[in-house]
Amino acid sequence: MKKFSGVLLVFAIIAGYAMNVSAQFVPSLREFTGFGGMTFNGADEGTAGAALALNISPRIGIEGEGSVIFANDTIINLNADLLFHLGTGTSPIVPYLIGGAGILTNGGTDVALNVGFGLKLFVEPAIAIRLDFRGFFISESGDIEDLERIYGGLIFFF
């Protein structure tokens, strides 16, 4: 619970800071995100990856993501996700909900569902900072435990 409270505090502080940014949300069709962060599942591990999204409307986006978790046994994660943007228009802050399914592999392959939330903080019309928190729920037959992930990244809209 302490980790979750800490995540919410970080999001609140950054959201307050971003209120002073004068950029506008531009509902561009495509976005590329590079990110780095941490996973939490008993042992805190670093993670890095990239995502490519297609926004099919100002509120709905489809995203493909690949990442690596730097654990004792390196874990590869591939996801297909659906984003629901909660804010649109001229606000520099765009909160969103996200969920999807994918695989994690470290020798064997496990199916995983994920659900989370985040913020896109626009610093320029075509550049934003992204903060994302997700829970991953792994199939019971696998050898990877459920985990939580938090990351920060940079989005380029094109």
Task: Describe this entry's structure for a reader.
The chain is built from 1 helix and 8 strands. By secondary structure, it is mainly beta. Strands 1-2-3-4-5-6-7-8 form an 8-stranded antiparallel β-barrel. The protein has one helix at residues 2-18; strands at 30-40, 45-55, 60-70, 75-85, 93-105, 109-124, 127-138, 147-157. It has a single domain, classed as Porin (Beta Barrel), CATH 2.40.160.20. The protein starts with a helix and ends with a strand.
Binned strand content? over 45%
The largest β sheet comes out as: 8 strands, antiparallel, barrel
Count all strands and give the number: 8
User: C-alpha Rg, in Å?
Assistant: 15 Å
User: Looking at the structure, what is the overall shape?
Assistant: elongated
Order of helices and strands: HEEEEEEEE
Distance between the termini: 38 Å
In terms of quaternary structure, the protein is: single chain
* Number of separate domains: 1
Q: Based on helices, strands and strand pairing, what is the structural class?
A: mainly beta
Helix content: 10-25%
Protein name: Outer membrane protein beta-barrel domain-containing protein
